Amino acid sequence: MSNEGALATTQKKASLDIAGAFKDAAVAGLVAFGLFSLILGFRTDQNMSGQLILTPRPGLLAASVAAVFFGRFAIALIARSGVLRNAGAIVPASIRGRMQHLGTFFAACLLIFALITPFLFYSNRYLLDLSILVLTYVMLGWGLNIVVGLAGLLDLGYVAFYAVGAYSFALLAQNFGWSFWICLPLAGILAAFWGVLLGFPVLRLRGDYLAIVTLAFGEIIRLVLLNWQDFTGGPNGISGIPRPSFFGIPFDASETGFAATFGLEFNTTHRVIFLFYVILALALLTNYVTIRLRRLPIGRAWEAMREDEIACRSLGINTTNTKLTAFAIGAMFGGFAGSFFATRQGFISPESFVFMESAIIVAIVVLGGMGSQIGVAVAALVMIGGFELFREFEQFRMLIFGLAMVGIMVWRPRGLVSHRVPSVFLRQEKPIPAHIVEEARQ
Amino acid sequence: MTARDAVLDVRHLTMRFGGLVAVDDLSFTARRGEITAIIGPNGAGKTTVFNCITGFYQPTEGMILLTHPNGSQYLLERLFDFRIAEHARVARTFQNIRLFPGMTVLENLLVAQHNRLMRASGYTLFGLFGLPTYHRAERAAIDKARHWLDKVGLIGRADDPAGDLPYGAQRRLEIARSLCADPVLLCLDEPAAGLNPRESDELSELLTDIIAETGTSLLLIEHHMHVVMEISHHVVVLDYGQKIADGTPDMVRNDARVIAAYLGVEAEDVDDALVASAP
User: Fold this and answer.
1) pLDDT higher for A396 or B177?
2) pLDDT tens profile A92-102
3) Domain boundary, last residue among B182, B215, B234
4) Which of A36-45, A300-309, B260-269 has the highest mean pLDDT?
5) B121 φ, ψ to 5°?
6) Angle of helix A319-345 versus helix A297-307 axis, rounded to 10
7) Domain-ending residue, one of B157, B182, B207
8) Confidence check: pLDDT of B274 > 70
């Protein structure tokens, strides 16, 4: 009975609100007219004698204002009718409970897709290169997720470790002639060492202050690489970095090359596919280690430290060591990704390690939802892959990108996957809603 | 009283913040297996004493000696920070509850057993490869957490986020969390603050129970006189950083200086003040 009554009231309100929606739309249209009249309504051209003249464009202006008017009218009508108000409640609790399994299923699908990607796009070199790039950023995102997502230490200079890894690999491989598989762990260890070095001076800093110091650290590393000409080659970078071999078998057309050994026809794609699987394996290693660490005392200490550092100290947790391990492990994975980058490109220079890279990686972690592995992977796919897809739109590319960012922050302010999955449970695993985790961060 | 009886021996403790003397030449002894309450008006320096004992402040002067049941002794003023909790096994709770709200109740209790689990996981290395030693240690840690959750009546909410619990339950969880660290001395900073009468009665019962079961010693800051007088064996009264009384609850209750401090008058005017305030 009461339900029917409520429904009737809603309908009555909806019919009444057409006037209100119309008013809303009229205001929006007026604002749009005011804004667009100068921006879209006129165009500056040159006349025959080279003077600037204004060409009015009434048609375009009318069309944009009409689009705003009707768009706003439709939105206002829907919003006022209360259809969306209970959108959250429309999804039954039983299905919402299953959403978590949906996430696991989705992750498995994504993994299978990643595994067969080289065969799906065998003849499309561009897509293969793009997927390698995406995976590199997935790995960087997962690496930074340890520092930012789990330990709650906002690091804006993550690209420094990427650079340390890349230069360590390049210099070790060139000067000593060591192979990729020897240089890779060394580059990781060196990056971890720099992570600890960064960690020491910033132990007492949190939040904005920490962000500023880490940002400066990233710039210091880049400037040193740029100016230490004898050692790093300065702005010329390092070229001729050895390409990876298939465990000693080079990817070339020679008798002992990969193609000849395995009886295949020589094709440069073989190396690309090999690189793809290397970065996939490295990214999955990062993911696996992070998932394991979360369930170990060190991972719980990281998350506890993110929530309350003083309480951690009162429980006998050495917060200094805990922070330094977070920095070191995060940096190590950055270093791995860096050495992969160096061997893939064959050439590195300080230009590849600018602040913009750090910003993109932080954006991936924040958009993905801090601490969520699958969220970070999807965010990297969307940010890097999506960015490339819109390449044909040229200057509008940045616009679309910005709009997408604003959209995500409006609808999902805590990232794509914002709930937290507990690391251990007694009876039943219940995801922790985002607002509780978020409150702790304040 | 022999030396072995004393779990905590505070001698000539002084804490200065610039020109302000928060704690002034305080000496007292807390005995093993007893509840020692520190009371006093607001701003008397009670929490500062706690912060000195638990290593959050470094005392300006004085000595804080902690004796374990096996006879080993620790000078707390020389240990820093987390080492007091780790080695001397002094646990504490906070006046404004400090839980890990985004973690589940069970996770909160596992974080409290960090150091033991860390050793069992070979400082992460064995744990990363999934060796059985760590699994055994984790199961033992969960069992201990379950035991204390049962005691404080939160076993049904073990998998809920700590930030979702009602206020009283958060207080009890904080106590359970500090007990998971196997403390030799447990310092509770106003555990009954904000609790209703029924809840504070339950708290008194819980604290007595804890002592009976674990043999640990409690140091308690509390404003609820009802709770203090009912359960504590020994009361230390502070006013303006100085000790004004020290003894059994009954002795303290009838001490003129204590009454004066609480009424905010000079000791010799207590009788007048009491007469004036009588209805």
Assistant:
1) B177
2) 555 555 566 77
3) B182
4) A300-309
5) -90, 15
6) 110
7) B182
8) no
The sign of the CA dihedral B241, B243, B247, B253 is: negative
Q: What is the pLDDT of residues B36-65, one digit of tens each?
A: 999 988 888 899 999 999 988 999 999 999
Report the top-level CATH class of A102-441: mainly alpha
When divided into structural domains, chain B yields a total of 2
- Which residue of B110, B164, B181 is in closest CB contact with A316? B181
Residue B237 lies in a domain: yes
* Residues spanned by the domain of B176: 99-182
Mean pLDDT of B157-176: 91
Q: Dump pLDDT digits (tens) for A366-378.
A: 888 877 888 899 9
The pTM (predicted TM-score) of the whole model is 0.82
Residue B207 and residue B157 in one domain: no
Instruction: Answer whether A432 touches B (CB < 8 Å).
Output: yes
Please give the residue of chain B at the shortest CA–CA distance from A301: B111
CB A344 within 8 A of CB A337: no
Residue B94 in any domain: the answer is no
- Give the pLDDT band (50/70/90) at residue B236: very high
Pair (B84, B5) in one structural domain? yes
ipTM for the complex?
Answer: 0.88
Residues of B in contact with A293 (CB under 8 A): 124, 128
CA B198, distance to chain mean position in Å, is 21
Cβ neighbours of B161 in A, within 8 Å: 432-433, 436-437
- In one-letter notation, the amino acid at residue A128 is L
Cross-chain Cβ contact B56/A310 below 8 Å: yes
d(CA A428, nearest CA chain B) in Å: 7
Per the CB < 8 Å rule, is B128 touching A297? no
User: Can you list the alpha helix ranges (DSSP code H) found in chain B?
Assistant: 46-53, 82-83, 105-111, 114-120, 125-128, 132-152, 167-179, 197-214, 225-231, 249-253, 256-263, 270-277
Q: What are phi and psi of B39, to 5 degrees?
A: -120, 175
Per-residue confidence band for A213, with pLDDT thresholds at 50, 70 and 90: very high
Same domain, B278 and B228: yes
